[in-house]
Structure formats: structure tokens, C-alpha cells
Automatic annotation (TrEMBL):
<comment type="pathway">
    <text>Nucleotide-sugar biosynthesis; UDP-alpha-D-glucuronate biosynthesis; UDP-alpha-D-glucuronate from UDP-alpha-D-glucose: step 1/1.</text>
</comment>
<keyword id="KW-0520">NAD</keyword>
<dbReference type="Pfam" id="PF00984">
    <property type="entry name" value="UDPG_MGDP_dh"/>
</dbReference>
<comment type="similarity">
    <text>Belongs to the UDP-glucose/GDP-mannose dehydrogenase family.</text>
</comment>
<dbReference type="InterPro" id="IPR014027">
    <property type="entry name" value="UDP-Glc/GDP-Man_DH_C"/>
</dbReference>
<dbReference type="InterPro" id="IPR014026">
    <property type="entry name" value="UDP-Glc/GDP-Man_DH_dimer"/>
</dbReference>
<keyword id="KW-0560">Oxidoreductase</keyword>
<protein>
    <recommendedName>
        <fullName>UDP-glucose 6-dehydrogenase</fullName>
        <ecNumber>1.1.1.22</ecNumber>
    </recommendedName>
</protein>
<dbReference type="InterPro" id="IPR036220">
    <property type="entry name" value="UDP-Glc/GDP-Man_DH_C_sf"/>
</dbReference>
<dbReference type="Pfam" id="PF03720">
    <property type="entry name" value="UDPG_MGDP_dh_C"/>
</dbReference>
<dbReference type="Pfam" id="PF03721">
    <property type="entry name" value="UDPG_MGDP_dh_N"/>
</dbReference>
<dbReference type="InterPro" id="IPR008927">
    <property type="entry name" value="6-PGluconate_DH-like_C_sf"/>
</dbReference>
<dbReference type="InterPro" id="IPR036291">
    <property type="entry name" value="NAD(P)-bd_dom_sf"/>
</dbReference>
<dbReference type="InterPro" id="IPR001732">
    <property type="entry name" value="UDP-Glc/GDP-Man_DH_N"/>
</dbReference>
<feature type="domain" description="UDP-glucose/GDP-mannose dehydrogenase C-terminal">
    <location>
        <begin position="333"/>
        <end position="448"/>
    </location>
</feature>
<dbReference type="InterPro" id="IPR028356">
    <property type="entry name" value="UDPglc_DH_euk"/>
</dbReference>
<dbReference type="InterPro" id="IPR017476">
    <property type="entry name" value="UDP-Glc/GDP-Man"/>
</dbReference>
Amino acid sequence: MKISKICCIGAGYVGGPTMAVIAQKCPEIKVTVVDINEARIAAWNDENLDNLPVYEPGLDKVVGEARGRNLFFSTQVDAAIQEAEMVFISVNTPTKTYGEGKGQAADLKWIELCARQIAAASDSDKIVVEKSTLPVRTAEAVKDILSNTGNGVKFQILSNPEFLAEGTAVEDLQQADRVLIGGENSPEGKEAIQALVDIYAHWIPRERILTTNVWSSELSKLTANAVLAQRVSSINALSELCEVTEADIDEVARAIGADSRIGGKFLKASVGFGGSCFQKDILNLVYISRSYGLTEVADYWEQVIKMNDHQKGRFARKIVKSLYNTVSGKKIAFLGWAFKKDTNDTRESAAIYVADQLLNEKAQISVFDPKVKYQQIQSDINYLQTRGKEENGALLESVADPYEACKDSHAVAILTEWDEFVQYDWKKIYDSMLKPAKIFDGRNILDHEQLREIGFRVYAIGKPL
Ligand code: NAD
Ligand code: UGA
């Protein structure tokens, strides 16, 4: 079966970049990305490529090449479903905030709505591809809805989870370590798998396209994120031990990462991992394990989250403690608010939780982030509902100039590893601060020796004082 038209429901951080790369690499396929969020679609269609709703290095070029040729962004969901032979579901699957499984299970409301909409809008057979991250066995529910509410047409369901990381999305998509496709082991299932393999084979070497059964594919996505997050929590746990033993976490990470069985990647100690997925997916894994009665399995993975919460909390406590146990009315500069560099995404960013703890102590926080705007910062902190909006507005400001953020502050905290922070004139920053001037490097990116020579007191993650 040859695919000539694709529809993707959900024009977010995954749907947008993924489909842009498919369109770029497969010029003969018409790719239409649809969303109910009109503002988002308008931004994807903005003539000025700087205004795309997702900031990713290189994405403007890919969108610029394919948009209007064979890549389209639209709010006409039904029309795009109807004409496509293959429909990707790439909508959000956040943690449930109500009812059974609140705070742990994935909220599949939007997935079910998509399935019902696909069934209602389809008058020809289709391949439906789960691109969103989903609990294992979700395809069963999707299939049930599609086959019972449709117009008698046939659906094949594939699982094709996405492994891109934000900030490197385009590179990750163009040079994926692997693509995973799960499908049914029937002649129709195999044909559907082959149709999707053929799309990726335009640019991914065939041996990197893995095919499995649907359940392995669904579960592999949750567990890939769990294992990655576990590495970060492991190195962060060791960072606390380093701080009391005068070992240096970067040296320890290099030493253990040199073992080819361990590998050097993803061992960077930090203020804690953030992002929309690690916590959500582990909580989901914990919930699923518990629902099968696997208490030890659930407890094991839950510890990864507990360690991460501890790391964020102890970073904030360290700031308060070293500022003589009181930060009330003191200006503290935050460099970075995004959950990692090269993205404007702030979901679950460690900065939000560190700020919240310092605001509880009545600190005055001034934030500079090269890609995050004031409104987003306020919305992130207000979402926690720890205090009223007015108080958050009065205590938390954001400025467009990093030197302005640091001026007259008692301390500077690095929350995101933006490259430009390393290049700043740290002597100029030191001169503008109150003394003793303190730096809390939550990402271990600065030259600590040089900062100490300037006169700073430097506190880093997993390093001797
Ligand atoms: P997102 O919130 O950025 O985008 C989801 C979009 O879906 C939103 O724009 C929303 O308006 C739209 N939507 C929801 N219901 C809809 C409907 N019924 N019809 C049309 N549009 C609808 O989310 P995201 O970050 O792109 O994540 C999507 C999925 O991909 C999640 O399951 C996530 O776990 C997974 N994932 C995310 C990443 C990442 O880096 N963000 C990476 C891999 C996998
Ligand atoms: C992560 C995975 O890396 C992707 O494979 C996956 O597709 C994605 O989640 C998803 O499912 O959403 P992402 O969250 O975008 O990608 O970014 P990562 O590079 O994984 O970083 C996550 C967090 O861990 C960031 O806050 C980062 O700063 C932190 N981190 C990462 C560390 O603190 N240390 C490290 O060594 C690596």
C-alpha cells in the first residue's frame, strides 16, 4: 500500500516537527497537520518563520522548505482525516488531574476524542498511527472505538512512538537512532507496518527501523523515558554524596561513563530533570505497575521521581541556607527558565519549583531566559496555586537583559544550561551585585575557578565548596 496523503492530529512539539521532517523527506506525500487550537495553527502558518509556535534549531528551514509544497497546517480536522490514508494521533496525554488515577495515570480524554472523530469522519479504510506516548494496551481501546463507531470502514492501528528530545528535535528526527513501529501480526497488520516503514525508509537506514508487536512498542516508549530519567536521578543522587565527600561529580561521571557498558551520555548532574514527559511517563509506569499488583516494580520507578523532587528542593534550600537563612526581600537572579537549553518549553522545568520554594521565603526573583517570555513565567508559577497572582506578580519579574537581572542581586542561580551564559562578562556582573556575591550553578556550566578569582562564592552541583 502506497501512502499519498497523511493527516496528523495535534500540531504541538511532536506533531509539528515530526510532520515537517516527513514532508521534507517525502515530497510526493501530502502532509496536513491539524489542530483545534487556532492560534497555534496561525503561528505555524506565519510568514515570518521566527514566529513558529515551537522553537527548535533548524526547524524554520525545514518548514520553510516544505510548507505550501506538501506540508499544510489547518484547523479543518474532518477534511484532513477524510482525504488521508494514514492518520497520526499526536495529541497531548498529560497526567490525570481528577478521578481514578489522579496525579499518576495518563489522561486519555483527547486520544478517545480523536479516535471518535476519525471514526466519524472516515469513509475509506485508514491506518491510524499512535504517535502520542500512551499506556501499554491503549491500542486496544482505540481499536474498539474505531471499529464500533465508524461507517463500516476498516482501520489498522500502529504504534509509532516518538523519541525526539526538545532542543535537538530536527537532528533527532533526521538521524534517528531508531524508529519503532508496532503492529498486528496479521496480513493486514503487516501491510500497514510496511506502509509506514516505506515512509521512514526515505531517510532512515532500514536496519534502524524496528518492528514489534503493538504492546512492546507502546511499553518501550514509557520505559525508554524511565531509563533515561533514572540515569539523571542516579547521577544526581551521587552529586549529593560528592558534596559531602569532596569528590567531584563531573569527574565521577567521566570515570564511570568511560566504561562502554555504561556510556558517557545522559550523566550530567543538574538541578533536576524537567520537561513534559519524564515525570508524566514514569508516573504512568508506576500507575500501570500498581494496577497489575506489582508493588515492588512501582516503588522502584517511583524513587526516580522522589530523587528528582529532592534534588530541586535541596538546591532551593542551599540558596536560602547560604544567604544566612533568610532571603526575604533579597533579590535573586535566575538565569534560565526553560527546562533545558535551545527550547522555549518550560513544562515541569526545575526553575518553576525552585522559584516557588524561594517565593515561599519572600525572595524577589528576577528572571532572564533568552526564549521564555514574562507571561509564560507568570503562568507557570500561578499554575501551582501556592499563592495569589498579585503576590507572584510582585515577587517574580522577568527582564530582557541578563545584566539587569543580576544587578543589585545577592545571588545568581543558573537554572538552564544556555550556551550564552558561559560567555557573559562575569566581572561586570560581580561588580554590579551585593557582596558577598554568590553563584549557584545548577547546571555546572560555568568556569568555577575563574569565578572564584573574580571574587564570587561558588556553589555547584556535586562539587566541593
Ligand atoms: P502539545 O501539547 O505540544 O501538542 C498537542 C496538541 O494537540 C495541542 O496543540 C492540542 O491543541 C492538540 N489537540 C488536542 N486534542 C485535539 C483534538 N481532539 N483535535 C485536534 N487537536 C487536538 O504536546 P506534545 O509535546 O506535542 O506531545 C504530544 C504527545 O507526544 C504526548 O503524548 C507526549 O507524551 C508525546 N511526546 C512528546 C515529546 C516532546 O518532546 N514534547 C517527545 C516524545 C513524545
Ligand atoms: C526526553 C527524551 O530524551 C526523549 O527521547 C523523549 O522523546 C522525550 O523526553 C519525550 O518523550 O518527551 P526531553 O525531555 O525533550 O526528551 O529532553 P532531555 O534531553 O531528555 O532532557 C530532559 C531533562 O533532563 C532536562 O531537564 C535536562 O536538562 C535533564 N537532563 C538530561 C539532565 O539533567 N542531565 C542529563 O544528563 C540529561
